[in-house]
């Protein structure tokens, strides 16, 4: 004998009286017909019960209600009826509705009705889980019956998803609600956002939600979860509770499974992602995972990496870069925007922060795979150049770059240079500041030159002697060091000049810079001032006691030779009539006599020949003038 029959027999033997019509309703739970037939039987028996009540009145109405509800609960909890529930469970919502109406009519306590609803929803969840969403289904398309069942009232009671069991109930009610909506309102369809918005508390993760949905996605074939609802869920439901689960991979697979628009979702999700970054909701590995997913879409990758850059600390952002470089390939889109966004973000950080990030990079260089190595180094180099270009050209930052720090950065730049050359752009920035920008404000020209030579003497010869300074030093770097002749030269005292001659130490960089300074300074002198200028510089040589040729007086030899090449040799005729340049002429001739390799011997010889010819012409002209005077006297 089944449990339901036992219940009926027990009730009949008790002192509690129930109507025959109620007993007839109670026996319906023994019916194992298919869903539509079962629904029809249930409907007809409740109609019969209503007609009986109207025709005869019912003294046992309250007892009847209790009896029908209890029979329904017994059926829902009976192991003998489990196999039938997958096809019949939806009909119990009609039974619930009718008993709730009876109960409300009698204004009775709702405790038993509430228990009925709890058992019904619990069983509904089991059916949905066991059939992977294939059941339950509404077996009727009768609009009146569906409206009377009112599945949405049950869905409205679900305001908390505390576990997977509750999620199964929620999904089952969603499925039945969507089916009801299609029948009741063909033009105004129920939307997922209307449903999920009603949930006030989620004790499961979004990944749990997605995983369960995918297992039973066939249940929602005609009303799949859409982007609007999914975006809402990502905002309100914690992404993952498991530290090992890759949430963005699962989320992305979910988009693919549902064939949702990839770009539309991530454009809407950006705001949520940005909030999550600011509140540090995401692990670094998760962020990198998402960036790698988006790396095939340039627009999205740029937006998401920019969100990271604007909300993360420099160290955190650098960690993202290192993680991406270590795990997987760096494609062109990633390379392009990592370079630009990192450069922009890192250019204003402190020196110590940059050095710390660079130190982390050095450790990664030992581990990075070959195919990423050059790309990684290239990005590092661009970030370094952006940092130096910003800070060395802005006085509020450049103030902090000491000689020692600049040399540290020069070593970093050389390591990143493909050719290990000082001609590398970052090296050029450092060299210019190291040599020509430090201690350069409000200082007289003579002191500037002395400080410059001091810095040149302290350069690492192993680094600086490998590159030709002519390919490194730019004329515009020397603007602040150009002499205004003659006044600046006369400010260069004997003491100052002796310091320079001792400091240059046969340094090729010092010699080149000294040569260019003299050339650039002389180029500023007007042609009509050359004779006067040479005379003044001749006097300066005498003043500083460097007017006599000495083979190892390299700076003076260069000084005299450049004046000779730029001024004297080009004006050999007029220069003869310039007063007080004897010391300089004798100096250059003595250098020629000693075959000094710093002067152009052929040019000096040509000059000497021209001078001799000029002297002969002058003497010849004088002889002719005297003869003419003699003849004129005879004639007169």
Task: Describe what this molecule looks like in 3D.
The radius of gyration is 48 Å and the shape is rod-shaped. Residues 624-636 have low confidence and may be disordered. The protein has a domain at 525-636. It is an all-alpha fold and 636 residues long. Helices cover 69% and strands 1% of the residues. The chain starts with a helix and ends with a helix. It has a two-stranded parallel sheet. It has helices at residues 3-13, 20-26, 35-56, 61-77, 82-88, 91-106, 111-130, 143-149, 151-156, 164-184, 192-196, 206-215, 227-236, 247-258, 262-278, 284-294, 298-311, 314-326, 332-346, 351-365, 370-392, 395-398, 403-416, 425-437, 445-457, 461-464, 487-491, 494-503, 508-523, 530-543, 554-568, 572-575, 582-593, 601-635, and strands spanning 160-161, 201-202. α3 runs parallel beside α6 (91-106) and α18 (314-326) packs parallel to α20.
Strand order of the largest sheet: 1-2
Instruction: Write down the overall mean pLDDT.
Output: 87
Low-confidence stretches: 624-636
Helix-residue proportion: 55-70%
In whole angstroms, the N-to-C terminal distance is: 174 Å
Structure classification: mainly alpha
Helical region count?
34
Count the beta strands. 2
Largest sheet: 2 strands, parallel
Strand content: under 5%
Radius of gyration based on Cα positions:
48 Å
Shape call? rod-shaped
């Amino acid at each position: 004998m089944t449990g339901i029959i036992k219940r009926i027999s027990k009730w009949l033997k008790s002192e509690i009286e129930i109507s025959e019509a109620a007993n007839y309703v109670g026996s319906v739970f023994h019916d194992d017909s298919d869903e539509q037939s079962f629904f029809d039987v249930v409907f007809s028996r409740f109609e019969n019960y209503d007609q009986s009540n109207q025709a005869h009145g019912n003294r046992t109405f309250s007892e009847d209600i209790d009896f029908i509800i209890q029979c329904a609960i017994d059926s829902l909890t009976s192991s003998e009826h489990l196999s039938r529930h997958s096809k019949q469970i939806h009909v119990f919502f009609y039974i619930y509705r009718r008993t709730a109406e009876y109960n409300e009519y009698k204004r009775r306590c709702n405790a038993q009705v509430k228990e009925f609803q709890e058992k019904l929803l619990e069983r509904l969840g089991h059916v949905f889980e066991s059939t992977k969403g294939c059941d339950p289904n509404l077996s009727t398309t009768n609009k009146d019956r569906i409206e009377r069942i009112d599945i949405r009232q049950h869905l409205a009671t679900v305001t908390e998803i505390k576990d997977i069991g509750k999620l199964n109930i929620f999904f089952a009610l969603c499925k039945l609600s969507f089916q009801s909506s299609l029948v009741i309102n063909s033009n105004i369809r129920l939307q997922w956002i209307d449903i999920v918005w009603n949930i006030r508390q989620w004790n499961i993760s979004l990944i749990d939600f997605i995983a369960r949905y995918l297992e039973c996605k066939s249940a929602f074939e005609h009303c799949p979860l859409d982007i609007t609802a999914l975006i809402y869920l990502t905002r309100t439901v914690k992404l993952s509770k498991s530290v090992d689960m890759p949430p963005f991979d699962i989320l992305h697979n979910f988009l693919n499974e549902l064939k949702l628009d990839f770009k539309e979702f991530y454009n809407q999700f950006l705001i949520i992602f940005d909030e999550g970054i600011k509140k540090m909701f995401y692990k670094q590995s998760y962020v990198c995972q998402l960036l790698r997913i988006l790396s095939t879409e340039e627009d999205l990758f740029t937006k998401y990496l920019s969100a990271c850059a604007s909300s993360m600390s420099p160290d955190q952002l650098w960690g993202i870069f290192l993680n991406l470089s270590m795990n997987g390939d760096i494609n062109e889109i990633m390379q392009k925007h990592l370079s630009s966004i990192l450069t922009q973000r890192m250019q204003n950080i402190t020196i110590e922060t940059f050095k710390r990030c660079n130190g982390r990079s050095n450790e990664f260089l030992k581990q990075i795979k070959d195919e990423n190595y050059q790309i990684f180094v290239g990005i590092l180099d661009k970030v370094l150049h952006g940092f130096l270009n910003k800070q060395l050209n802005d006085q509020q930052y450049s103030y902090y770059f000491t000689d020692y720090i600049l040399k540290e950065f020069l070593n970093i730049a050389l390591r990143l240079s493909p050719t290990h050359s000082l001609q590398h752009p970052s090296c050029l920035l450092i060299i210019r500041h190291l040599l020509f920008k430090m201690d350069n404000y409000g200082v007289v020209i003579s002191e500037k030159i002395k400080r410059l030579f001091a810095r040149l003497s302290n350069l690492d010869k192993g680094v600086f002697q490998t590159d030709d300074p002519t390919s490194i030093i730019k004329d515009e770097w020397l603007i602040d060091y150009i002499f205004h002749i003659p006044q600046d030269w006369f400010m260069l005292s004997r003491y100052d000049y002796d310091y320079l001659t001792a400091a240059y130490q046969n340094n090729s960089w010092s010699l080149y810079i000294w040569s260019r300074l003299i050339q650039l300074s002389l180029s500023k002198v007007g042609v009509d001032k050359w004779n006067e200028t040479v005379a003044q510089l001749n006097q300066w040589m005498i003043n500083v006691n460097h007017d006599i040729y000495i083979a190892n007086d390299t700076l003076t030899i260069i000084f005299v030779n450049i004046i000779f090449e730029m001024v004297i040799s080009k004006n050999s005729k007029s220069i003869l009539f310039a007063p007080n340049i004897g010391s300089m002429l004798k100096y250059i001739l003595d250098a020629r006599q000693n075959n000094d390799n710093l002067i152009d011997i052929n040019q000096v010889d040509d000059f000497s020949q021209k001078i001799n010819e000029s002297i002969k012409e002058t003497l010849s002209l004088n002889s002719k003038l005297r003869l003419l005077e003699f003849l004129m006297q005879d004639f007169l």
